[in-house]
Amino acid sequence: MNKVKLVKFALVGGIGFIADTTIFILLYQLIGIDILQARVLAFVVAATTTWCGNRCFTFSNRPLKNRFAQWIKFVTVACISALPNFLVFKLVANQIGSYFLGVYIALAIGVLVGMMSNYLLSERWVFAE
Q1: pTM greater than 0.85
Q2: How many domains does the structure of the chain reveal?
Q3: C-alpha angle with apex 127: 125 to 128, nearest 5 degrees?
Q4: What's the pLDDT tens digit per position in 85-120?
Q5: Which residues cross the membrane (predicted)?
Q6: Do 115 and 106 touch, CB atoms closer than 8 A?
């Protein structure tokens, strides 16, 4: 595992987390959309944000043949990685509650769990040399 790429991936993921959390707060807290619907919509925005960041920063030295095909692969990986992300999110939210900070703690823990599978699949498939 390349430590420099992992750090870059985590930095881009941090930006994605900010996008994810911001959209989630807007949809859930301000607009009042159902918690899981808000979570899914925020996830799509974050996945697209992190694909752009990883394409331009983390894996900028890798060849790019077709941006759309690569984005589809990245979103596929993000969806695969969303399974543990959402599962942990739901489990933690059920345990500590979805009131005020509890939902955001669950969000953060879910994102961290999903990041690990996302990095491995991105490194080996989406941005493969």
Answers
A1: no
A2: 1
A3: 60
A4: 989 999 999 999 877 788 889 988 998 888 888 999
A5: 9-30, 36-53, 74-93, 99-121
A6: no
